[in-house]
Structure prediction request, 841 residues.
Amino acid sequence: MKTNLNYLFTVLLVVLFFNCKNNKEQQQVEPSNTTVETATDKRQGQAFIEDDGSAPNVLQIAIGSKDHTTLVAAVQAANLENALVNAGPLMVFAPTNEAFAALPEGTVENLLKPENKDALANILKHHVTPGNYSKDFLKKFKKLGQANNQSVTVEVKGDDVFIGGAKIIASVPAGNGIVHIVDKVILPN
Amino acid sequence: MKNIFKLSIGFLMAAVAFTSCNDQKSGQSGALRSSNAEKVYVAPGEHDSHYAFISGGYSGNLTVYGLPSGRMFKEIPVFSQFPTNGYGYSEETKPMLETSYGFIPWDDSHHPDISQTNGKLDGRWIFINGNNTPRIARISLTSFETEEIIEVPNSAGNHSSSFITENTEYVVAGTRFSVPIPQRDMAIKEYKGNFKGALSFISVDPEHGHMDIKFQVLMPGFNYDLSHPGRGKSHGWFFFTTYNTEEANTLLEVNASQNDKDFIAAINWKKIEEYVNNGGGTMMPANYAHNVYDEATHNATSTMKKEVRVVNPAEVPGAVYLLPTPKSPHGCDVDPTGEYIVGNGKLSANLTVHSFTKMLDAIENKKFDGDAYGIPILKFEDVLAGSVEQPGLGPLHTEFDGKGNAYTTFFISSEVVKWKLGTWEVIDRKPTYYSVGHLTIPGGNSREPFGKYMFAMNKITKDRYLPTGPEMEHSAQLYDISGDKMELILDFPTHGEPHYAAAIPAEIIKNNSRKIYRLAENQHAKKATSDADTKVVRDGKNVHVYMTMIRSHFSPDNIEGVKVGDKVFFHITNLEQDFDVPHGFAMIGANNAELLVTPGQTRTLTWEPKQVGVWPFYCTDFCSALHQEMQGYVRVSPANSNIELSWGLGEE
Prediction:
């Protein structure tokens, strides 16, 4: 019993100190201005506001979809959460897990590496248009200007609409735009 | 016992651990936070170092803030009726809101800019544009009141306004919407080639500030979004961003985004001024209001002007050029040296920077890439100074610190990015909360910015403050930009929707601020400067009350002989000659507003009594220990009553 008590106190103290250390680190990070992107920049912003009342935004829709876990992981790896919750309006072409899986083996794993963050962000931004158009309305376009400064083609084949070669298979309206689920990853030039 | 001892030691150590932890925590954050706190803390009774004049957007007004505290000092009514002081309700100020469409009680105020001498802020006046019913207002930075409003004919959506040339020669107003000029009944789909965009150069009288439209350049039917003057070497030029160079008239979000590049229009206004001074241009019939407030008579007058001089740019060779600029540029900003013209393509991920020197060279060597309606288009590569590659998403506006750095806002990625002129490298980026529109550095539109503070004006607030229902005031963030890295030091709410702000070191204007109006200089036709002047005069159904107010009574305060169906004009003069002792006047059942009358001023409120009875009026501004005694009565008799007019003060 004695030993147990001692053990308990040791654990307690370690935990306290550990918490303390964590607190200290968090406190230090906030006012730090030495790095261009601090840890707090990643965790602050509109993406992290709790709001159960509003219609879900494009990010929340992606997070809530079991077919888009790869996309969500990629968005998080590229720190693009805040860009997707903006007033926009934003039109996101969201490739399914299957679409990512169809890429050559190792592509996704490679892109998720920290050193490839910029390349990943470029690919993801190639799936985002400032706009909010239904699939039918998109038939009016020949091309769309994407957030990575490149454009994608819009092709109509029968009832189907293809964006940069990827077919729109479903559409979900969002609080800040629309998510079109597509069957391919749209690769930038 | 041993157990208890060990237990105590344990608790003690735990307590020490907690304490030291807390100490560390508060020590860390305390020190760092207090240094930010010290940067924005203005002790009670101390003054801020800068004024910030923040546009009110859909409030139609202009708000005055202090920096670095973020405290709001005043809302200056400009384009909107303001029941708080009776602006736009009193007989003296109603003419300020007259237009060719009649009396308009509201507008959408956008881009304030402070007057300049030799490219430096001189702090005499501030100008702001009304966007919806195109107008430009001039506000005195002595009285902090709107002194003049001129309507801009041939314009619609007065957005690329109101920016000042470096000696306040002109305040410039460009149209966002192109329209038929002159207006006429025609099919909308005939827009292309037929609509025109008017860029108005409004001269400013150097002594009184009075505005007069010198000329309007009738440009092709693009949308003219924002503008800024050349300065230093580029003084004499003015630059306007354009979008919808496709000249679409429907679904612009698709049809105006077809061209990879739109233009920045470069206007050599000195050349056009010379052309006009030599009789160039055409006087065309027009109809627009010019409203001027006279401080001596305390009265505004509205005059309708009937013609305006227009210039066809194709007829003035060498005066207008188009600089291709990617993807629907929004902000159009010129650096303090006048060399760089920044066009932020809002659908582009890059920032485009043009060189004024290269532009002159391209003009000289005729490096043209065709023309638009006879206006030469310069070759993009030959005017490009450089571009900032992918600094963020949704670039809007750029300001400068005078130390070779530029600061650009990004709406979609919610950040301000600091970058270096000439090398185009990104130096720093800081998030804003959230979705930033404009930003301001004091003197940011001048040759000499005061690069200590920068504030970002955000469109979206969400969780930054305590929630106040679905509608929130917008949030602004103040950054210390004196170091290499921007440092966020304060959040503060703004009123209405700020579109741009102009800020200035306080010492330039604070000593000019007016304290009172001299009663001896009051030239109001219906003033009463002593009890001897007070009277009530009937003119048919109109009853004129010549009234005074002083701590703590109105004179007269008992009035009889007013009848239902009369129109009563209370002409009230504040006899105080003491700083910051305004009196208010409120009449029960008045269908307009109150009056707030500053010392030495005369204001008139109109009241149309509808019911028989004895009706009180009172002072609304707590003026004195006997404020609650400052009141009076008007007896209203039936329309057919024979009761004669009578009035008095203190008569039993």
In short: Residues 1-44 of chain A form one domain. Chain A has two domains: 1-44, 52-182. The two ends of chain A are 69 Å apart (CA to CA).
